[in-house]
UniProtKB/TrEMBL annotation:
<dbReference type="Pfam" id="PF07654">
    <property type="entry name" value="C1-set"/>
</dbReference>
<keyword id="KW-0325">Glycoprotein</keyword>
<comment type="similarity">
    <text>Belongs to the MHC class I family.</text>
</comment>
<dbReference type="InterPro" id="IPR003597">
    <property type="entry name" value="Ig_C1-set"/>
</dbReference>
<feature type="domain" description="Ig-like">
    <location>
        <begin position="193"/>
        <end position="278"/>
    </location>
</feature>
<dbReference type="InterPro" id="IPR050208">
    <property type="entry name" value="MHC_class-I_related"/>
</dbReference>
<dbReference type="InterPro" id="IPR011161">
    <property type="entry name" value="MHC_I-like_Ag-recog"/>
</dbReference>
<dbReference type="GO" id="GO:0009897">
    <property type="term" value="C:external side of plasma membrane"/>
</dbReference>
<dbReference type="InterPro" id="IPR011162">
    <property type="entry name" value="MHC_I/II-like_Ag-recog"/>
</dbReference>
<dbReference type="GO" id="GO:0005615">
    <property type="term" value="C:extracellular space"/>
</dbReference>
<dbReference type="InterPro" id="IPR001039">
    <property type="entry name" value="MHC_I_a_a1/a2"/>
</dbReference>
<dbReference type="InterPro" id="IPR013783">
    <property type="entry name" value="Ig-like_fold"/>
</dbReference>
<dbReference type="InterPro" id="IPR007110">
    <property type="entry name" value="Ig-like_dom"/>
</dbReference>
<dbReference type="InterPro" id="IPR037055">
    <property type="entry name" value="MHC_I-like_Ag-recog_sf"/>
</dbReference>
<dbReference type="Pfam" id="PF00129">
    <property type="entry name" value="MHC_I"/>
</dbReference>
<dbReference type="InterPro" id="IPR036179">
    <property type="entry name" value="Ig-like_dom_sf"/>
</dbReference>
<protein>
    <recommendedName>
        <fullName>Ig-like domain-containing protein</fullName>
    </recommendedName>
</protein>
């Protein structure tokens, strides 16, 4: 029976083709006494698999990752060494950046690097970009392997980094070879996310929420995996855009995801409600989830539902803020906002 289960699992996983990602987010801070001076996290398919900071050594965060480093101690040693090296490099970079700044107070330097892999086409794509104090700062052009200054403040940094041939060669090695090789290896160990796709999605919940009788109605989906999903409102079976506001896909605390899309009902006659429905589509799952616009199905948040709102406004505290206003806004940044919300929202 167990053999048949794993054969079925293997076949099912083989039918699921998706884009995978390996991302490293590194953050250096200055002037924030209650915040680590440096922290770094690694994610595979938007799930955190490793973490370190200026107070903690590198440690795996998933069972498969713990098993991997148990069998290959050198893997964890590499991450520990890189954590220390990046901490020193970030401290030096921030000291240089602060010398050219007229502003006092807290400073934040970020780096987002890694790669994506399409397991259907075999295509891999690396990325490496920095942000400083709420602005995109500098990014690496992977065609020419030269740095692009995204703000006039980064011109000197670009010139210095372009002249560092050894560092450029190291980046090329990791972005073109090492990261893709690891990414292709990690999902083979990462059984849990695939189990989520097969088993967890039976717990996916689609519901209608409304804060007050005059508020828009939110179609809310939660406990789904992966984070590649679409949700939209329809009228008479056709997708509509007027009066619709789509929210971001956000992580839950169990490695599944949630999303919502609001419908403004102020101009919709009650007798026409029956013409509207909400559709949820998940990558890798054939059948859609559909819920009709029905007053009897609407739940309110008074006394029973608690919302967490991550406003795009808070992107000002972090870099890559142009991404906050696009559909490509990285899910992990949202995870960071949630994890740091107590600190950020009280500043």
């Amino acid at each position: 029976e167990k053999l048949m289960f794993f054969v079925a699992l293997r076949l099912t996983v083989g039918l699921i083709q998706m884009r995978h990602s390996l991302k490293y987010l590194l953050i250096g801070t200055s002037g924030l006494p209650d915040f680590p001076e440096f922290m770094a996290t690694a994610t595979v398919d938007e799930v955190q698999v490793g973490y370190c900071d200026s107070n903690k050594k590198a440690e795996p965060k998933q069972e498969w990752a713990k098993e991997l480093v148990k069998n290959d101690s050198g893997h964890l040693d590499w991450y520990s060494e890189r954590c220390l090296l990046h901490q020193q490099a970030f401290r030096l970079s921030m000291d240089n950046l602060k010398q050219g700044s007229d502003t006092e107070g807290p400073h934040v330097l970020q780096r987002l690097t890694g790669c994506e892999w399409d397991d259907e086409t075999g295509e891999t794509k690396g990325f490496d970009q920095f942000g400083y104090d709420g602005e995109d700062f500098i990014s690496l052009d992977l065609k020419t392997f030269t740095w692009i200054a995204l703000t006039p403040k980064a011109v000197n940094t670009k010139l210095n980094w372009d002249a560092n041939i050894g560092l450029l060669e190291e980046n090329k090695k990791f972005l073109n070879y090492q990261y893709p090789d690891w990414l292709k290896m990690y999902p083979q160990n990462c059984i849990t996310p695939f189990l989520f796709l097969i088993h967890k999605n039976k717990n996916t919940i689609l519901s209608l929420l409304q804060r007050t009788p005059s508020s828009p109605i939110s179609c809310f989906a939660t406990h789904f995996y992966p984070d590649r999903a679409e949700m939209f409102w329809r009228k008479d079976g056709e997708e509509i855009h007027e009066g619709v506001e789509k929210g971001d896909i956000l992580p839950n605390n169990d490695e599944t995801f949630q999303m919502s899309v609001e419908l403004n009902i102020s101009s919709i006659k009650f007798e026409d409600w029956k013409r509207y429905d909400c559709v949820f589509q998940l990558s890798g799952i054939k059948d859609d989830l559909i819920i009709k616009l029905n007053k009897a199905l609407i739940r309110t948040n008074r006394g029973e539902i608690h919302f967490i709102y991550i406003s795009r406004l808070h992107c000002k505290w972090f870099s890559f803020k142009n991404l906050c206003h696009s559909d490509d806004f990285p899910p992990f940044f949202k995870l960071l906002f949630i994890a740091s919300s107590e600190f950020l929202f009280n500043v």
